[in-house]
Amino acid sequence: MGIVRLVTDSTADIPREVCLSLGIEVVPLKVHFGNDTYRDGVSLQAEQFYELLKQSPVMPTTSQPSPVDFLEIYKRLNEEPDVQIISIHISSELSGTYQSAVLAKSLLKEKADITTIDSRTASYGFGGIVVAAAVAAGQGKSKEAILILIQKLMDQSKLYFLVDTLEYLQKGGRIGKVAALLGSLLKIKPILSVEEGEAVSVEKVRGQKAAVQRIIELFKLSEMASSKVNVMIAHSNTPEAAEQLGELVKASFQLTTLSFTTLGPVIGAHVGPGTVAVFMFPVE
Prior knowledge:
Structural class: alpha/beta
Number of helices: 11
Number of strands: 13
GO molecular function: lipid binding
Oligomer: single chain
Pfam families: DegV
Shape: globular
Protein name: DegV family protein
Keywords: Lipid-binding
């Protein structure tokens, strides 16, 4: 039985120390402020990004890794004896990152055992699955068992997120200008999720407090309400809002773990500052 190694991309928003401890390889996407280009999580960390976002006169844009970026990592890992690679990435509906991984696999001349997976979700929605898979790999589980675990978590995990401003979603083409303007004027807070690989509006609630409470209610309507869960709360430079949401989650669910992370530069560029997100996974 081979050794299983996990590869992902920077939009998974996995804390750096977790990646290092579990041996997870991360391919960075790029963030552009005008003519300046940064590698997500490498030359630009989350805290630096949000400071730059305040100061910059231009809105940031993002771009996917090239197949060569994946090829370099696949080649290096493939030199390890009996290695088996699982490469999990942001939804192909949201980025071309997964396609770059698939192309890199096809370009690898050496014999290699690589499985590429389109997570059909984003941020820690698949980052948590990568972490669970890496933990299973560290326990010596087979690749087949890890792939079954990944599919189960993809089927059962849930996420909801709440943005503070609609400006970034509008700039990214997720909503129209009129909807963004009316939403801002009426203080509408759209509760969003990722379904069938795409970002979708689940409900529109007036006011931050009511929207946060509705997120809790939506999770309670799922099978998560009656089982033990692992929860990650992510935020875009608003730790206080994340901690307040964490207190509500602790009071409402049977938690095995509750942790916090910061949304990275690429995800932050699309949702903007002030975003909070809850990612919930069934306990294995």
